[in-house]
Design brief:
- By secondary structure, this protein is an alpha+beta fold.
- It has one domain.
- Helix content is about 30%, strand content about 25%.
- The chain contains three helices and five strands.
- The longest helix is centred in the last third of the chain and has 11 residues.
- The radius of gyration is 12 Å and the shape is globular.
- The chain starts with a strand and ends with a helix.
């Protein structure tokens, strides 16, 4: 399950595009394409619950409150998410 959205924030001429994916273990990974930030939102409960609330607001709330780990994601996953975000 994944989502792609533009926050409307004017970090670049394109705004701020974010793509996020819910992983099998319940973690959410995201790429802020315009600001070149990658992160992982750790699972705080079971995956089914996260899936039920996984939306733009969930991702932005974690991002804006720094409730994520900023890290380099798996290179292939990063490439795949960036390709989807710019398509």
């Amino acid at each position: 399950m994944q989502i792609k959205f533009n926050t409307g924030r004017q970090y670049t001429a394109n705004g701020q595009w974010i793509i996020a994916r819910l992983l099998d273990n319940g973690d959410v990974v995201f790429v802020d394409v315009d600001r070149q930030i990658e992160g992982r939102i750790p699972v705080l409960c079971d995956r089914d619950f996260v899936a039920s609330i996984f939306d733009r607001a969930y991702v932005l709330d974690a991002y804006d409150s720094c409730s994520y780990t900023e890290s380099q994601l798996d290179r292939e996953l990063t490439r795949e998410l960036r390709a989807i975000a710019t398509a």
